[in-house]
């Protein structure tokens, strides 16, 4: 870690609590459209479940690189259909507003304070599959103290493609070994390490709710393992 000049962060699940944020907006949306019986957290889970398959179409070259806002919107319409709702009857404005729930996610309770400490020593930026507008709106609303906002379209690749990590280092003007990915997901860290980045695991035990069964601890000896961002700041001397 002595060589590291910048910290880049996975965002969904590591910086922000996507499940509760989506559920918060889904509850009134579903009630307005005749489905108050649907569990908003289950709705959030179903929407998120389509996230990786949608990006895989781009990674595999079956589809050109497509911004996450567009993929999220397509996935939203499919989840609505799965639950007996017709997107055409809901209307464009309401669909767009619900899709932008991803722009309004709240950080984990200690995240902003921890990032503020880390920023004293390191350049901070997201390394997310989110697009620039999404990450910008999220940061403005939640006062997330990024030094730069790099969305997936800046690198033109979705994690865990090596280009997502290597192009980010190049954009920041540093070597891969001068860049550290901070993430709550072992798979993301594994891909970053394979691309030459330093790695920091932060535990988010309830990202997928109280019954979460994955990423409950570090799978490998990452460069740093921390309980949260405040603990990470302490371990990095910030």
From TrEMBL:
Q: Which Pfam families match?
A: Hydrolase
Keyword Magnesium among UniProt keywords: no
Gene3D superfamilies the record matches: 1.10.150.750, HAD superfamily/HAD-like
- Transmembrane stretches, start-end: none
Q: Which SUPFAM superfamilies match?
A: HAD-like (SSF56784)
Q: Which UniProt keywords apply?
A: Hydrolase
> What's the protein name?
Haloacid dehalogenase type II
Taxonomic lineage of the native organism: Bacteria, Pseudomonadati, Pseudomonadota, Alphaproteobacteria, Acetobacterales
